[in-house]
Amino acid sequence: MIQLQGIGKRFGEQQVLQDIHASFGPGQINMVIGASGSGKSVLMKIMVGLVIPDQGDLFYENASLGTMDRSEKQILRQNIGMLFQNAALFDSLSVEDNLLFPLRMFKPAPRAQMLERVAYCLEKVGLAGKGPLFPSELSGGMKKRVGIARAIVLEPRYLFCDEPNSGLDPKTSLRIDHLIRDLTQEFNITTVVNTHDMNSVLECADHIIFLHKGRKTWEGDRQQILKSDNEDLNELVYATRHLQQFRDKASL
Amino acid sequence: MKFFFHFGRYLLMLRQMLSKPENGRMYWEETVRQMASIGLGSVGIVAFVAVFMGGVSAVQTVYQLVAPYISLTVVGSIVTNSSILELGPSVTSLVLAGKIGSNIASELGYMRSSEQIDALEIMGVNPVAYLVGPKVLACLTMIPLLVVVSISTAIAGGMVICQLTGLITYDQFIEGARSSFLAYDVFFAMCKAFTFAFFISSVSAYHGYHVQGGALEVGRASTKAVVYCCILILSGDYILAELLL
After folding, report:
1. pTM, whole model, 2 decimals?
2. pLDDT in tens, B124-182
3. Is residue B138 part of a domain?
4. Residue B115 near chain A (CB below 8 Å)
5. pLDDT number for residue A252
6. How far apart, in whole angstroms, are the C-alpha atoms of residue A52 and residue B36?
7. Å from A154 to nearest chain B CA?
8. Half-sphere exposure of B222 (CA within 13 A, CB side)
9. Distance (Å, whole) CA A102 – CA A146
10. Do B56 and B171 form a contact (C-beta atoms < 8 A)?
11. How big is chain A by its Cα radius of gyration, in Å?
């Protein structure tokens, strides 16, 4: 369980986040949605501890991130997996070595045992046998899947995904969504996904918070999102004319 | 104010660099990898520059010694002393600032802009300790060795060129070199090498690590790293000469 209590952040004159309260539970996909510049990425960086909030605090299982010292944060981070927008794989390492890196750093074991874990994670993301390849030899979707495999290799309790579908075709996007959903449910992970891809939201979001100009203005699930009367949210959900026509027909 | 901001952040980076490694073996492997890359990867350019540095200083010394009452053995003495005191440590460090400094800054800058440093941090790795520490340690180990290679090659280069061009003989060169050799000069050269190695590695790492932006900013950081390293090497050269000679 992750709890945000009154999170606020300002960069210079600009108030990027203001008084964000939310709670993200385990075994479900929690999505943070909003238009570009709404503060989603900053919120995620605050949640993983890369950015320190100006106001408020956040709690991992009732432990305050704000009061943790460096070693406590390091222990917490070993329970966090993160998929970056561009996967952020280590270019100079092969896929196998990318996955071996956190294992060797934090859970050193006989090499055969670690390779077994790597093979298991690669199989989970549908990339069995791709270990010897380098990131430059992979497609965008494959890179994301390697990113997911690296994020889960240490069996994290929390998984953060920043725009997991950006730059991917709809079919590959769907595959990534299903992968995140299956892993979340199978391992009872607390997953937080940043996205503005409404297909993803409607496909697998269990809990959604909507950010508009740095404020949380709506919260609900994927059934409720289609019936919301929040105008800012509707502008995002029904962004295209086709969807607007579809909504108007449905409401008649 | 800007200077104090950067200097403070630089000091904080150095402090973080000294924190306890999460896994000593992984850090050691990274240090050895950096040593191979920095040391072996630079031997060729260092030797190439040193041969011509020694040769040119020998030829120019002979050219300037027009007085018949000055013994030609002085050429060996001047080439050796200038190689040990100045050309070896300072010129080699300037060359290495261009090669290693830009390499460190661009590597870290690219890792920053592609979020690889963030990925390390979220894994629980201290990115400064893991990425900067081994580079600084590798430079502190390998650059003094490269300076030794440079000094030896410059002296050998000067001697061979003197012999090949018939300026003076091997014996005259060696006699001059021995007559003015002081062990303290080697100590002074090593002090310079360690100081410059620290400047090259830490200043370049600072510029690369704190890149904000994309390819353009990485390029700028790399250029800045080389410029600041050169300024620090030249000013440090003077300060060390004042303090130690």
Report:
1. 0.88
2. 899 999 999 999 999 999 999 999 999 999 999 999 999 998 888 999 999 999 998 99
3. yes
4. yes
5. 60
6. 38
7. 9
8. 17
9. 13
10. no
11. 19
Distance separating alpha carbons of residues B50 and A229, to the nearest angstrom: 76
- Kindly state whether B36 is in contact with chain A, defined as any CB-CB distance less than 8 angstroms: no
Domain count, chain B: 1
Name the closest residue on chain A to residue B25, using Cα atoms: A105
Interchain proximity B124–A74, CB inside 8 Å: yes
In B, which residues are within 8 Å of A83 by CB distance?
none
DSSP state of A218: E
**Tokens 């060996």 belong to which residue?**
B76
d(CA A140, CA A16): 30
Residues 6 or more apart whose Cβ sits within 8 Å of residue B205 = B13, B104, B105, B108, B131, B132, B135, B136
Q: How far is A73 from chain B (nearest CA, A)?
A: 8
pLDDT (0 to 100) of residue A137:
95
Specify whether the CB–CB gap between B151 and B51 falls below 8 A: no
| Exposure letters A169-207 (e unless 16+ CB within 10 A, then b) | eeebbbbbbebbbebbeebebbbbbbbbbbebbeebbbb
| Chain B positions in Cβ-Cβ contact with residue A78 (cut-off 8 Å) | 123-124
Lookup: tokens for B167: 């300026």
Contact at 8 Å (CB) between A99 and A118? yes
Beta-carbon contacts below 8 Å between A and B: 56
Whether B2 is in a domain gets the answer no
Residue B202 contacts residue B136 (beta carbons within 8 Å): yes
- Residue among B23, B115, B124 whose CB faces A88 most closely: B115
Diameter of chain A measured on Cα atoms:
65
Burial class (CB in 10 A: 0-12, 13-18, 19+), B5: exposed
Task: Give dist(CA B67, CA B83) in Å, integer.
Answer: 23
Q: Which residues of A touch B23 (CB under 8 A)?
A: 104-106, 108
Contact A50 B122 (CB under 8 A): yes
Over residues A181-209, the pLDDT tens digits come to: 988 998 899 999 999 888 888 888 999 99
When the pLDDT of each residue in chain B is averaged and rounded to a whole number, the result is: 93
The nearest CA of chain A is from the CA of B71 a distance in Å of 57
The answer to whether the CB atoms of B123 and A104 lie below 8 A apart is no
Residues in chain B, total:
245
